Give the backbone structure.
Amino acid sequence: MQTDRHPGRSSVRRSRTILAAGLLAGLLALSGCGAAGGASDAGSGDDKKAISADERGAADTAAGKTAQDPQAAGGSPAERKKPDALPAGTHVIRTATLSVEVKSVPKAAAAARSVAEGSGGLVAREETERVDDTHEMSHIVLRVPQGEYDAALRDLAGAGKLLSRTSSAKDVTDQVVDVESRIATQRASVARVRKLMDRAEKLTDVVALEGELSSRQASLESLLAQQESLKDRTTLATITLDLSEPETVAKDGDDDPGFLDALGGGWHAFVTMLRWLAMAVGAAAPFLATAVVLLLLWRLLPGRLPGRRARRAPERSESSSTPPAS
């Protein structure tokens, strides 16, 4: 039996073998983890790709539905922003004047009222009159919301023959902002004066502060009235509508007079003559009555007239001096 001459070398070799085995096991373990991690990453990447593909498919489907049904994109038409809608914070006063010739003014006026009320507006003023007992004219002032302004104009202009149309738009955004700022400042000023009144102890101070408070409160109320007027004019557009009927034109054949026209003209002349004769008799009646009265007096009172007495006296004398016939 042989013994190992170098016992230290064998222990070193075993240590190196164990160390090499441990390193190899660690490398294998690291390799397994890396492979598992790569597979996991690959799996998650595939899942993400699948999810992205599903999302793209859903988006394409939604786009197709939107193209087929426009209301699916943003709800009802009233909720969606119209193409001609004004930007947020813009305030515009719109007015228009229409002159339309229609066959029947009452029917057109009723239709105009329906257009205003159907759009959420109102009839501010209406005036109707008959001209020459042949046709009517109507003057109507309508107030419609800004969003229904263009549609209302189209409906009103299409009621008949459009004779004239004028429209205007005035941007009052700066004025609205200025009034709102002044109102805020004036309210703060009124609040400060009220606080000073609460702290005032002298009667003279209270009286002076009351006068100042009244002045600032009046200014605030004036600004509030301006704000309300601007709000009304920018919320509702004003449309002035003038309706008229076409004038009746006589036919060419009706211009030539006929027998009935001549008869009517003759009767009119006869009645006119009688009227003038009656007027002449009425004017001469007082003078004729006076002449008749004088004539009767002259007939009834012959002895009181000196001329007749003088004429009758010689007649009596001559009759008495004439001898009787033998």
